[in-house]
Structure formats: C-alpha cells, structure tokens
Amino acid sequence: MKRSLSKRLRANTATILTWVLALVYAFPILYMLITGFKPEEMVAPPSLSFTPTLENYDAVISEDLMLHSFNSVFITIATVILTILLAVPAAYSLVFGRLKSAEGIYYWFITTTLLPAVAVIIPIFLAFNYTGLLDTKLGLVLLYTGAGVPLMIWMVRTFFTDVPYEIIEAADIDGCTRFTSFFRIILPLIKGGIFSTALLVFITTWNEFFFAVNMTYSKSATLPVYLNRFLTQQGYFWAKMSAASTLVVIIPVILGFFTQKTLVKGLTLGAVKG
Amino acid sequence: MLSSRGIEKPRKSLVNYLVLPAIIFVAAITQIPFLMTLILSFIRWNIKRPDLPVEFAGFDNYKFIFTDSKFYQVLLNSLVQAAVALALCTIFGFLLALVFNRAFKGIFIARSLIIIPYFVMESVVGIVWKTLILSPSFGINQVLASFFGMEPVAFFSSRLSLVTIIILIVWQWTPFLFMILLAGLQNLSEDVLESARIDGAYGLKMILYIKIPMIKHYFEVGMMFGLINILKVFGLVFVTTQGGPGVSSANLPYYVYRTAFYDWQMGRSAAIAVVTVAITLIIIQSFFNLIRRKQRGSTI
User: Fold this and answer.
1) A residues 65-124 near B, CB within 8 Å?
2) B68-294 has which fold?
3) Fewer CB atoms near the end CB (10 Å): N or C, chain A?
4) ipTM value
5) Within 10 Å of residue B117's Cβ, how many Cβ atoms?
6) Which among A214, A198, A116 is positioned nearest to A151, based on CA atoms?
7) How far is the CA of A134 from the CAs of A75, A138, A140, A258, B100, in angstroms?
C-alpha cells in the first residue's frame, strides 16, 4: 500500500515535470498568443495581468492581410495539387515500373532537396523578369512545386513500397489493368500517406520565405512577406504584431498536429526496414 | 516461357514513363538554373552599373572570394552553426523523447506543445524571439535580468549574434528530432527491453547500451534530414540579425543573398553559391559515408 502510494507520487511528479517542460518549451509561442490579446499600452513591461481585448485583431484584419491570405491559400493549394499530379505517378513508376535506373532516379530526386534556394535565385530571377513571371502567383507555384515534388516522391515511395506485391499480382491475375488496379487497390491502401504528405507540402509551401520575399513585390506576395513588411513598418507595435503572427501560424500548426505521425512514418519506414 | 511471364511485370511498360514529367519539371526548376549559376560564376556583372561591361572573368570571382577574409568568417559561421545546432538538436530531442515516452493524461497536448515550433514559419520564429523574448528593453530577457539583478544580455551584439541564431535553430529543429526519436523509442519491442532488464540493464546502462543502439536508424534519418535543412537556414537570419553586425552571424546562404541583392555583384554571388553547393554536398556525403560505414546496407 505504502509502496504503491510512493509509486503513484513518483508518476505524478514525472507527469507534472513533463507538463512544465512542454509549457516552457512552447513559451515563446504561448506568450505571442497572449500578447496578441493585450492592449498595446500593456505589452511593455511584460506582465501577465491585463484585460484581454480583440482590438489588435480588429486592427490587423485589414484588406491588405486578406489579399496576402488569399495569395497564400491560392498558391499553396495550387502547389499541393500540381505536386500530387506529378509526384504520385512518378513514385508509382519508380516502385512498380521496370526502370533499371529507378534507384538512381530516386536518389537524384533526393539530392535536389539539398540544393539551397540561393544557388538558383539569380537565374530564376532573371528568367522570371524576362518572361513576366515576377510577382505572379504562377511563378511561385512553379517554384514551390519544384521543391514539393522531390519531397513527395521521397515520402510516397516509402508508402508504395509498403504495399505487398502479392496484392498487385492477385489483381493482375483477376484481369485488372494497371490503371484500375492503381485506383481500386493501391490508392485506397496509401491514401492516408498521400494525404499526410500533401499536408506536409502544404505546410512547407505556406511557410516558405526566401522565394516569396525575392520573387514578389505586392500583387502576389504571401503571408511571410506580409509579416516581414509588418515588422519593418510597425515593429514597435508588439501586440498587433503578435496578433498578426498568430493568425498566420494557426493553419500550419493545426495541420502539423495531424500530420506528425505519418510524417515520421514516411521518413523512417525505409530506414527501419533496412 | 510465356506462362512464367504471366505475373512478371513487363519490361517495356507504359508505367516507366510516368516518372518523366516529374523529372523534366524538377530539372527545369532546380538543375538548369543551377547550371546557369555555374556559368554566371565566371562572369563579371554588376547589375546596378549598366555602364560597366558584362564580361567573362575567368576564375576572378573565385579568386576574389578565396582571398576575402569575410568569406572565411562566413564559412566558419556556417560550419559552426550546422555542427553545434545539429548536435544540440539531437541531444535535446533525444532527452525529450525519453521523458515523453510514457503514457499519461493529456500526453497528446503536451507533446503537441513541444512540436509546435517545427511548424511555425521562420519569419515568425525570428520576429517573436527578437522582440518579445530577447529584446533587452522590453523582452523576457529584461524581466529575467532585473529579477537576477543583472544587465540584460546583448543577444544581438557581434559577440553573441551567432549564438543567438544557433539558439533559434535549435529551438525550431529540436522538435523534429524529438518526433523521429520518440517514434523510434515507441517502436522498441517490449520483449527485448524485458530481457535486457533481466540481464541487469537499468537506467543509464539501458539507455546507452540498449535503447540508443536499437534506434540508431532513427538517429540517422533524423540527423540527415535535420542537417540538410539546417545548412539551408535563411529566413531566421534575414529577419533577426541580417547577418550582422558585420558578418558575425551570416551563413553561406545569407552571404550569397547579400552579395547579389546588396552589393549587386551577380557573378561573385554565383561563385559563392557554387562553393556553397559544393560544401553542402561534401558535408552531406561525408555524413552519409559515416553512417554507411557503421551500418552497411541501410538506406536513407
């Protein structure tokens, strides 16, 4: 009896410590969340006693923010769709096709993710300037899809490899064509993996900063650009800045909660099988 | 012969061609521009001075950067930044994974709190830390300093700016290593752990000799992906320190950017970009070989 009590006490202490750890780690973000609800004049010096207000959100939600949000949503969704259309057939081909160099092509795709964006920025800038793609949504969609496709092939190939080959053989014997066996049998098995990878591409595209800052001015600028401009123009209004930042990170953070499991699975499955 | 081919995949299948559009697209966005960067690196071109000729410069751009003391400082910054940040992310990520590898009420929420920073965009990470947390006048920095009766720490001075960038990278990338390593710990079979316990493996022994070797693959994948991305960090530097003061906190990606868009030296910037890519490839390849030598037959 005594022993179980001390055991429970230990477990409870561990739980409390874990919670403290989690709260301390997330503190900068939680503090940002709180600051967004503070009246501007109570932000400095920092304190936790204040009357919550929505005035910052009221001030921040403007036509300008809406324009940038629309750009972000449009560009991100278009990128995700285009990425799926290019990457899923490619990954399927690498796993179920009969390419001799499938392995080599796969590694080539992965190496393209090593390339820092700065290594291609000047030619792309010049090419965009020449073709009129500068400050257009299409331009960003093309660039982001170029980054999204290798990432998606990397993850989705893992999920394809996870499909037992017997199932496809069985479908072949039953007279399914490649086309129908893909849509009827394989796709239902891996649609969870594709969906989560799509969310991951969504998050990285939504958060992308470098191309967004350099390839757009105003018409097609996304939310990271908006925030950066906000900081330089109104950097002293911390409450408004916090409110704006909170609005901008809500979507990726929530999506992140749902993708974490599949993200980890997609990245590690290949390695664990060895 | 025909009958044995029945269930075998045909060699000349249309399926093979499905990979082509992706190859063409990715090559057009990444490889061709990089080849053009390579060409540009042999050209002298100041884009803001149309009166000066755009001309072939031979190896002048490379000669310039390899005799430029700033370049060496930036290179050193990049290496220190990648090595220290990756090591700290891995250590903290693993310690957190050990702490979170048990069931308790609300674990999902507590775990989600830890992983939030990974999904927050770099510009917000930079903004929040620069102002709310580290600002010496009104940030938490000032609160803590006055609590302990000290001067606030000058996080953005030339002495500490690189450390500050590393802190931000570690804060953002530890959650990633944490997610991967926690998955590894949760995949460990209870049987193995139990028999290790019977053999007398407890506490630190258990962690060092059983758990770490058994989740080695997870360390490899997590560190590889982490390294690739830490080497590319740009937004954090752009928003917080602009690489300064001087070049004290600039890394290679930021230096390429600054040379192109502040100094307007296109050729020189391209040369730095080429060197950056070469160094990145060398680092990743050495890291990959290190993993391979230890454990044959593993893939990324």
Assistant:
1) 86-87, 89-90, 92-94, 96-99, 105, 109-110, 112-124
2) MetI-like fold (1.10.3720)
3) N
4) 0.88
5) 24
6) A198
7) 14, 9, 9, 34, 46
